[in-house]
Amino acid sequence: MSTRTHEPDPEAVARLLDDLEDVKIHDGDPSLGELSKRSEAIGRFVSKATFSRSLSGTLLPKWSIVETFLLVCGIDAQEITGFWKPRWVLASGGSAPTDRPGAQYEHACPTCGTVTASPPSRPHLSAVPA
Length: 130
Hints:
By secondary structure, this protein is mainly α. It is 47% helix and 8% strand. It has helices at residues 10-26, 32-41, 48-56, 63-72, 77-91, and strands at residues 105-108, 115-116, 126-129. It has a 3-stranded antiparallel β-sheet. α1 (10-26) packs antiparallel against α5, α2 packs across α3 (48-56) and α4 (63-72) runs antiparallel to α5 (77-91).
């Protein structure tokens, strides 16, 4: 489905990390310790230190860390698979499918600019053409 074509794209990585920080803020800005506790509660333990190293630097975090972070911030599995995973793959230097269902529309928050492919988990977002 996706293959690595070159090294991670630093700009795409920076945008992804910024957007992950926005997800955390929209979840009430829980501490990294709280996120670690949540990860343990769902059987996918990630330490506070690992979250910190993975999400505050300039390097692309492992997908498993990003996926767990999104889950513990309340993002549903469909949005993770349909929106976040392709973004991570592209940032990693791979390619992602563009023919995913709903690709013709993304949903952007008029207040903060967060973009998502799945409005039900973000009722405050409005549909905009992609």
